[in-house]
Amino acid sequence: MEQIIAAVRGFVGALVVIPEPGGDFPELAWGDAFFYYAPDGQMPQNVQPYGTIITKNYPDDAVSDLDPPGRWRVNIHVDRATFRELTGEKPRSLTRPRDYAVADSVMPHPVYGALGWISVVNPGERTTDTVVQLLRSAHDAARARCVRRHEPRRS
């Protein structure tokens, strides 16, 4: 997990938010990591992270079995073509049964797959390089969206 967080911190303009006790985030998010493009170092308003690491089951997201010690999952928003290449399915047409608790395997996110998110439980030898590449691409896409949002409007 630390290897992936360190890789994202190395992306120009990346902001890694890891909520801790006593902060503004709900207790459920403590210890998780949220990845943003934020060249000013401030958490963007009204923008979803392009990637996350979660370290526990959430009330509506428990099929990855993240509560046992040492289990965690990285989640990354990808474009449609990448999603299909990685999963063999279109985001909004997921029909294949999957064991979302399997480690070191790229698959649709168990809750947000239909929205173009993929996930990997405990990335290892097979998937760590892919995860870092996907996070780099997601970071670049977030940067491009930020640039478009802040371009002066032409009349």
Could you walk me through the main structural features you see in this protein, from its secondary elements to its overall organization?
The chain is an alpha+beta fold. Helix content is 25%, strand content 16%. It contains three helices and six strands. It has helices at 2-9, 80-87, 128-150, and strands at residues 14-17, 33-37, 51-54, 73-77, 107-108, 117-121. The model has no long low-confidence stretch (mean pLDDT 95).
Categorize the overall geometry. Answer: globular
Biggest sheet architecture: 6 strands, antiparallel
> CA-to-CA gap between the ends?
47 Å
**How many helix segments?**
3
Radius of gyration (CA) equals: 16 Å
In terms of DSSP E residues, the strand content is 15-25%
Q: What spatial order of strands do you see in the largest sheet? A: 1-2-3-4-6-5
What is the SS-derived class? alpha+beta
Mean residue pLDDT: 95
Helix content: 25-40%
Number of strands: 6
H/E element sequence: HEEEEHEEH
Poorly predicted residue ranges = none
Write the layout of secondary structure elements.
Blueprint: H1 2-9, E1 14-17, E2 33-37, E3 51-54, E4 73-77, H2 80-87, E5 107-108, E6 117-121, H3 128-150
Antiparallel strand pairs: 1-2, 2-3, 3-4, 4-6, 5-6
